[in-house]
Amino acid sequence: MSKTQFTDLEFIEGLRHNNDAVLRALYKKYFNLVLKYVVNNSGNSEVAADVYQETIIVLYENAQKPAFTLNCQLQTYIFSIAKRLWLKQLRMNGSLSRFKEDEENEVVDVESELSDHLKKESDIEKMNVCMENLGEPCKTLLKDFYVYRLSMDEISEKFGYTNSDNAKTQKYKCLQRLKRYFFEN
Q: Is the pTM of this model over 0.90?
């Protein structure tokens, strides 16, 4: 029976000893973190897979060094490597405008940035749950306006409101209800 959950130290030791189970578990555990970061920052899933592959190689190479010690969470370390690699790739492709010369040496609070990223992901999940619990017609009305970018006239016609002002009023009420659900939970 192979172990599926490893501590940060077990991951590092497993990499040092070329443990395939550790490598597979490592790929599964943190890939989505890198995928979401790259996709949310002008990338796609194929590029994210490449960035993650490079990230794991950097981690592996560092773990092989006898003096290497992990002095933060492994998740933070992986995120910081992936972020650096992605920014480097954007810069090389000319997608990152006015990248400062000294930015390579700039100290970045990765722990804080990772925390912000995870908070945003959590808020998005929470908003999706609130939208699902909102019920009709509010759920569809808000999606039509904010996601599908329908005009108030189009929404008014779709929902049978007498005019666009009534549609605006209903949208406002739905939005207030959604905010209340979001902030009460």
A: no
